[in-house]
Amino acid sequence: MSTKTVLVPSSDATISRRGFFMKLGILFNGFAALVLAVPVVGFLLSSITRGRGNSYLAWVPLGRIDEFPEGQTRLATFRNLNVMPTDGKTVDTACWVRRVAGETFQVFAINCAHLGCPVRWFPQSGLFMCPCHGGAYYRDGARASGPPERGLFQYPYKVENGLISIQAGELPTPGAAIASLTGEKPPCAS
Amino acid sequence: MRIMNAKIGPAVAKIGEWFDRRLQLAAPIREAAEHPVPRKTASWFYVFGSAALTVFLLQVVTGILLALIYVPSAGQAWSSLQALNHDVALGWFIRAMHGWGSNFMVAIVLIHMVQVFLFGAYKFPRELTWIIGVFLLLMTLGMAFSGQVLRFDQDAYWGLGIGASISSRVPIIGPAAVKLLLGGPIIAGATLSRFFALHVFVIPGMLIAFVGLHLLMVLKLGINEWPMPGRIVKRATYEREYHELTKQDGAPFVPYAIWKDMFFTAFIILAIAACAFYFGPFGPTGQPDPTIIQTAPKPDYFFLWLYALLSLLPPSMETPFLLIAPVLVILALILLPFLSGEGEKSWKRRPIAVLTVLLIAITLGTFTRLAQFAPWSPHMNAWSGDPVPDRFVHGTTALQRQGALVFQFKQCRNCHSLGNTGGQRGPALDSVAVRLTHDQLIRQVIQGGGNMPAYGNNLSPAETTALVAFLETLHPAGQSPARDAARDIALGDSSQKTSGGPRRDKR
Fold first, then answer.
1. Mutation target among B81, B180, B186 for the A interface, most CBs of A within 10 A
2. Beta bridge partners of A61
3. Domains of chain A: which residue ranges?
4. pLDDT for B216-227, tens place per residue?
């Protein structure tokens, strides 16, 4: 707006030399602010833009498939590939590996589909139970009861040379790439 | 002594004059201190604002002290807190002061807000003071949450996960909001660092600026007069009336009113110190290691009501509620002074205001109380820890005892209590046979329903038979189990087993 008043002086007000430089100064500062804002905003949003196109996701090995007996569900841990020096233990993540039969697996995120608390597997009753708000899931990850609106999140997996790997790297939330990769829709879309 | 005073006195005065000639602050400070306030506002009801300010300053001081040792790194924060608790002299006390100071601050800010609301102090011309106060409340809550994150333990880690899960539900921008909140795709080093920046620089900076404005307006507009029933606020006349009131029945703030603030402030600081000394610091709980999943995270005291709400809301209402309710509440608080900017101030003539406060207080109190024992969470260890009380298996048949074993082994106890031990997620089963017939029990076990998972895939027919046989014994002495009358007629009395075994008096 300030440019307009400078370039198109109204008929009844003549612009003084000082007034002109004052306005030019404001314009110049506005330009400097814009030059500064571009990298600042870029820096602030880098955690979003860096992961565009699922580049946060990577294939992470979980171990040999013989470690997972058929028909059982076992806890496995993996280390995220995106590591910063200050991350400490937080890059280690747990997941539940269910070997259905042969090379058919289901790899469930540890995070409850409700609000992300760690679910625990109870082989005797064949249920995953969440300690926070009481969500429960069946052995195949389907919702059994409680507040969750959907089943457990599943990581895409592949078996190569007797080794099972999963595609991981994002905290599983209803809107995360993991959720959409396995064909699950976010709750607002269903 | 008197001679020394006579010599020192003028010297101090001279130094004071030297500074004031350059600073020129003495006159405005004296004017602010001695500004007349309505005599009746020198009341114990008017001390909460200054107490909140004092606790805020206490938080700044103890926060700076903690920052001398604390390391905002996901790899080292937890151990630096342990060092504060155990290795650094009095580190535990400073941590405890900061933690308890946080609890007191939230409480005092809320009490201050309720007092201001009930005394009509948000009405003309103090609308903006109220609105800034609403933002100060939000920032105080923001400090409480980000502070809980800096105590980087298991609760903080999973609490962040809950925050991320809630943010992810925002339509369209949800996934981006999660990454912005966490500083990356997972909860890690960048997450803690950004919460450190929020807790130590961003929010405190905003708090200082807003507290300054809030105080400035209190000075410029004057302390709210004691509300009298029937004294109506009108935009046209209020300022003149207030001016006259302070002229006719006013007294200088210092010392007439301030002594009560000073007493209360000192009392609050001592109360925080006493709590800190007696109860000690909060946590940290277990290490923030996501591979340790044997944990039941719970939020800090002031967010317990939210924890309860998230468990009790019907699933379909949860996302709309989480995303819309906070916006509506904040909007309502901001619009309040515009909707009722004039009129009666006294709470004696504002029954709806009083009832609203009571309703909110009772609701939040009830939710907080519920969250303390979390009846909605399964007791993860009940099946292996709480045995079926003897009296429930005394005198039972072999089949029924086998059923009691199935009952225990299949983790039914995690959600159902028997003899008052076990989970409270599902109903207590002490008298389930009175409520459900034989067929209904089988159906409920196999198909689930209500809020119960189906166990059909996890129980063999033999196990189901045994379990239901045991469940049928669960009825009070002298009260017969439920029977399906239609079946009796169709198939004869013998078609339904009457509950096996003699019934014992349970209590």
1. B186
2. A165
3. 2-44, 57-181
4. 999 999 999 999
What are the sequence ranges of the domains in chain B?
A: 37-373, 382-495
Q: Six-digit token pair at B181?
A: 């909140």
Would you say domain A57-181 falls under CATH 2.102.10.10? yes
Pairwise CB contact (< 8 Å): B169 & A86: no
Instruction: Determine the 3-state secondary structure of A106 from DSSP.
Output: strand
CB-nearest to A87 from B189, B454, B455 is B189
Q: Which residues does residue B466 pair with via DSSP β-bridges, in sequence order?
A: none
Rg for chain B (alpha carbons), in Å?
A: 31
pLDDT of residue B126: 95
With an 8 Å Cβ cutoff, are B310 and A133 in contact?
Answer: yes
Superfamily of domain B37-373: Cytochrome Bc1 Complex; Chain C (1.20.810.10)
Name which of A124, A146, A113 is nearest B382 in CA terms: A124
Structure tokens, B144: 């409480």
**Angstrom distance (rounded) from CA B222 to CA B227:** 14
- Over the stretch B87-112, which tens digit does the pLDDT of each residue have? 999 999 999 999 999 999 999 999 99
- pLDDT digits over B413-456, tens only? 888 988 888 888 888 888 898 999 888 899 999 888 878 888 88
CB pair distance less than 8 Å for A131 and B378: yes
Collect all residues of chain A within an 8 Å Cβ-Cβ radius of residue B79: none
Of B283, B335, B268, nearest to B57 by C-alpha is B268
Cis before B255? omega within 30: yes
| B contacts of A147 (beta carbons < 8 Å) | 310-311, 313, 315, 318
* Mean pLDDT score, B137-166: 94
CATH architecture group of domain B382-495 = Orthogonal Bundle (1.10)
Least Cα separation, residue A64 to chain B (angstroms): 19
B172: closest chain A residue by CA: A175
The two tokens of residue A22 are 């004052």
Least confident of B306-310, B360-364, B488-492: B488-492
pTM: 0.88
Q: Checking DSSP bridges between strand A136-138 and strand B343-344, what pairing results, if any?
A: unpaired
Complex confidence, ipTM: 0.86
Contact A51 B73 (CB under 8 A): no
Same CATH topology for B37-373 and B382-495: the answer is no
